[in-house]
Amino acid sequence: MHELLSILIWLPIAAGVLVMLLGDRNIAAGRWVALSGSLATLALAVPLWTHFNTSTADLQFSQLLPWIPRFRAYYGLGVDGISMPLILLTAFMTVPVVIAGWTVIEARPAQYFAAFLIMEGLMIGVFSATDALLFYVFWEAMLIPMFLIIGIWGGPRRVYATIKFFLYTFLGSVFMLAALIYMYVKAGQYSIASFQALPLSLIEQRWIFLAFFLAFAVKVPMFPVHTWLPDAHVEAPTGGSVILAAIMLKMGGYGFLRFSLPITPDASRELDLMVIALSLIAVVYIGFVALVQQDMKKLIAYSSIAHMGFVTLGAFVVYEIVRNTGQLTGAGMGMDGAMVQMISHGLISGALFLCVGVLYDRVHSRQIADYGGVVNTMPVFAAFMVLFALANTGLPGTSGFVGEFLVIIASFRASFWYALLAAVTLVLGASYTLWLVKRVVFGPVANSKVAALKDLNSREFLVLGALAVAVLLLGLWPAPLLRVLQPTIHHLVIQAIATKL
Amino acid sequence: MSPDAVMSWSSVAPAVGEIWLAVGICYVLLVDVFAGERQRALTPTLTLVVLAAGAALMVTCGHVTERTLLFNGLYIADELGFVLKLAALLVLAVALLYSRAYLESRSILRGEYYVLALTALLGIFVLISANSLLTVYLGVELLALSVYALVAFDRDSGIAAESAMKYFVLGAIASGALLYGMSLIYGLTGTLDLTQIAARLHAPLHPGVILGLTFIVVAVAFKLGAVPFHMWLPDVYEGAPTSVTLFIATVPKIAYFALTLRLLAYGLAGMEAQWSQMLAALAVLTLVVGNVVAIVQTNLKRMLAYSTIANVGFIVLGFVAGTPDGYAAALYYTLVYVLVALGSFGVIMLAGAKGFEADRLDDYRGLYRRDPLLALVMMMLMFSTAGVPPFVGFWAKLRIFQVLWESNHLWLVIIAAAMSVVGVFYYLRVIKLMYFDEPQGSVPASAGAPGVRLALGLNAVAVLALGLLPGPLLDLCARLIH
Q1: CB burial readout A70-82, b (16+ within 10 A) else e
Q2: Smallest Cβ distance to B478: which of A70, A163, A182?
Q3: Residue A419: partners with Cβ closer than 8 Å, 6 or more residues away
Q4: Cβ contact (<8 Å) for A181 and B425?
Q5: Burial label, B158 (beta-carbon count in 10 A; 0-12, 13-18, 19+)
Q6: How would residue B36 be classed by pLDDT, with cut points 50, 70 and 90?
Q7: Is A53 exposed, middle or buried (0-12, 13-18, 19+ CB in 10 A)?
Q8: What is residue B1's predicted lDDT score, i.e. its pLDDT?
Q9: Which helix (H) or strand (E) holds A73?
Q10: Strand partners, B353
Q11: Hey, is the C-beta of A178 within 8 angstroms of any chain B C-beta?
Q12: Chain A contacts of B425, Cβ < 8 Å?
């Protein structure tokens, strides 16, 4: 079992290289290699879940090999309750991306599939690295395939969008690297556990926290460094949007839970109001921004920012709970909510982008105004779209409900006003999502293009069906996920409220 | 050395590389003269044979494990020099391999080119092993004069002649500065021997020594291409035939690293406080000017020239740290830079064809469609120079950041990090042109023998492999310095 994580990282990368070597001429074989590569990765990720020990917060499936002796950096892998579900999500979401791109991608298909497979491996690497240097290498390497995906297969303004995306994230990451080096110089090694145990003064913590904050806030993205996301999403091809929304945004949230809270608990406590305020701005203000969008992808992109606001809110509301009530009750609930929200948003936003992709492949427009009455010609598709839209609004019974509900309850313990502002999303989210559905799906058939639409083919049905099952399953029965999270979140709360001073 | 000591073979064995090169140069020159126009192709092959034999001789006879002084202390043989020389040999061989087709297609495949490259290499060898101000100057001038001639080598090209002239005039001023600084140091310490100078220089320092040091730093900065002594570099890179640019951008950097190390870090170690301040100012200027000015370039060779300047800033930062770890980081950075520059200029040469230089950025629009391999190689090299893992360039930058943190130069880390973000932009632009844009007009198909393309591919694979497993090279650099 020690090599399982390594296999999960390198198998998709190897498959990606193989697809690239096969080239566009052998793309028929290449597609199958890509599909079997991603399916095999998913299949191998399942034991991660079934053999997961839910009674401990320790790292499991760990592997530790010497990598760079001079820096005492290790090739160290391992998962706990917060990284394991994210790895499963990554493995799960790559399959629909491969299937969705099956025939749609006409230009350089071999590289398209290769880029996604390589990225899958790198993303799993980010979630499983236990050595900060290894983490950083995966974290940055991941930018390369995404840069190419947006730049090569993107829309008309793809160059602007992809360079903006790369520079924003690279700038944030450089600060994180500086913080990592600082801690390396103090700790003498790069293991994340040693950083978490490292005593740091409040001033050091503040700087480190801010450096991490820049890196992760760009990735989440939080207001006001979110502006790269709508551009990237709009210009990216469908698969790129799906991976961007479903996985890459989660890395910011993961970073907060893995690095910021345990490494700089005192600075987090001191600066928590900043994070909470920015999260609430994201929830409320970005919600309004989403309302006025004319472009479906842009609308979903803004909705992503608003939903990710819940993740950061849930992670940092812990400090307000302790401060205002003096008790720990409910502190874990916020973090539970943040994690569930990440998984659920990964599924829902991915599904919504795939829905937009289905429409775009047929009509070649993302403008809401070009649609109307899609339900008349594509009833099956409309059913899926409505389901995912409702999940996006947080309808009970779907996964969207669980995360938001947990975070709102937790913020209620901290302050009535946080909960109230957070709950505004229920109204706003419903408004922009349902209005989108109303304009696109319902009503009379708007134009001849819509009239000529054909309903889902079996490939699309399979993809959306699988996602729908996952969304409903997680919404109706979140207990297995919460059980996996429980010991790790408990441990994390203790780390987060402990003081290093 | 006792007066009755006879110069035996074993006493000069560590210098076998230089001796062999001197013999080889004469040999290649003679063969070329008598071979005539029709056997012109003989010289390149012969040169490669000379290089291969030189490497073999050095490995079998010339390997030393301890510091050995030869020729009355003028010459030092140590493991560092051994490895640097082998690296220079290898890089020159690859550079000549890359440039053969380029020279042929432009009808400038002449024997002198190869002879001059070999004399430059001899100069590099001498410089690497210099243990006396005299030997340093000898090496510097032998290298510089060969390179001036190489730049002007394409005699029908006006721009090449112009840049050679500029290089020569500015280079002469730098040589003058170097000599003047050396004379002051010599006058005040009474010795030319670097080991002796190191032993005799200690606080309180005579103001004249500091003046001498200043001139030496200026000369070193000129040779490295550090701002504000970088003026020659973009013009020479742009004006010289690409094969010469490839040469200038790679092999001599190894020698100038050795120059900085032997002269400043070892010889003038007693004045570390002074020169590290000077180098810090130079490094900051170099990083800022190199990265910012590179953004507005439209010529790829010129852009890479400014990129070189930016990289030199990082190498200088390694020296600023003033610790053995810092020098090891600078060595690592130099080797990594040379590896990447070798590939980058190799791509420029292979992308071109007869009558098409492929040196403007616009020539790279849609390169992916014309030549996927070249585009892929170039992309990896650009990401590497930009410092994006998993490519080796990242580790070079990381190592520099680490040694600066460890020596408490926090503000330098911040400037260097900020400037490397600026740098990313223009490297990304090259990738954007190659991959995201459509080709413009019809461009002659790029040629290049399969062997050369394979070498270029291996070059890129090395950049990736050293990036995935950076440990061995890092350890080697540290071992060489300590």
Answers
A1: bbbbbbbbbbbbb
A2: A70
A3: A408, A409, A411, A412
A4: no
A5: exposed
A6: confident
A7: exposed
A8: 45
A9: strand A73-79
A10: B356
A11: yes
A12: 163, 167
- Give the pLDDT score at B142: 94
Interface test mutation site (partner B, options A13, A148, A174, A189, max chain B beta carbons within 10 A): A174
**Residue type for A92, please?**
F
**A6 contacts in chain B (CB < 8 Å):** none
Phi, psi of B442 (to 5 degrees): -100, 135
| Whether A147 and B394 lie within 8 Å, measured CB to CB | no
Tally: H helices and E strands in chain A: 23, 2
Mean pLDDT score, A221-225:
88
On chain A, the residues whose CB falls within 8 A of the CB of B431 are 147, 151
Contact (CB, 8 A) for B133 and B192: yes
- Cβ neighbors of A50 (< 8 A, separation 6 or more) are none
Nearest-CA distance B247 → chain A (Å): 30
Residues 6 or more apart whose Cβ sits within 8 Å of residue A427: none
Q: What is the mean pLDDT of residues A95-114?
A: 88
Interface contacts A/B by beta carbons within 8 Å:
76
Please compute, for residue A56, the number of CA atoms within 13 A of its CA located in the half-sphere on the CB side: 8
In this model, does residue B6 exceed pLDDT 90? no
How many Cα atoms occupy the beta-carbon half-sphere of A97 within 13 Å?
37
Model confidence at B2, pLDDT cuts 50, 70, 90, reads: very low
Separation of alpha carbons B14 and B80, rounded Å: 13
Give the Cβ contact number of residue A132 at 10 Å.
29
Cβ distance of A140 and B394 shorter than 8 Å: yes
Q: Side chain identity at A455, as an amino acid letter?
A: D
C-alpha to C-alpha distance for A279 and A319, rounded to whole angstroms: 15
* A chain contacts of residue B464, beta-carbon cutoff 8 Å: none
Cis peptide before A221 (omega within 30 of 0): yes
Indicate if the pLDDT at residue B4 is higher than 50: no
- Asked whether the beta carbons of A422 and A317 are under 8 A apart, the reply is no
A148 touches chain B (CB under 8 A): yes
Please give the span between the terminal C-alpha atoms of chain A, in angstroms, as a whole number: 38
- Decide if B435 and A67 are in contact by the 8 Å CB cutoff: no
pLDDT in tens, A2-40: 888 999 999 999 999 999 998 888 888 889 999 999 999
CB contact B417 to A (< 8 Å): yes
The rounded distance, in Å, linking the Cα atoms of A490 and A481 is 14
Question: Which tokens sit at A383?
Answer: 């059913």
For B132, the 3-state DSSP assignment is strand
Q: How far apart are CA A263 and CA A253, in angstroms?
A: 15
Residues of chain B found within 8 Å of residue A185, distances taken between Cβ atoms: 402, 405-406
Does residue A166 sit at the B interface (CB-CB below 8 Å)? yes
Query: ipTM, 2 decimals?
Result: 0.90
How many whole angstroms from its chain centre is CA B236?
14
Which of B414, B421, B477 to probe by mutation at the A interface, max A CB count within 10 Å? B421
C-beta atoms of A166 and B424 within 8 A: yes
Contact assignment for A178 to B401 by CB distance below 8 Å: yes
Q: Are A190 and A184 in contact (CB under 8 A)?
A: yes
| Helices and strands (H, E) in chain B, number of each type | 20, 2
What are the b/e assignments for B284-295, b being 16+ CB within 10 Å?
A: bbbbbbbbebbe
- Across residues B378-392, what is the average pLDDT? 92
Whether residues B401 and A181 touch (CB distance < 8 A) is answered with yes
Tens digits of residue pLDDT in A416-472: 888 888 888 888 889 999 999 999 988 888 888 888 888 888 888 999 999 999 999
Q: What integer pLDDT is reported at residue B3 of this predicted model?
A: 46
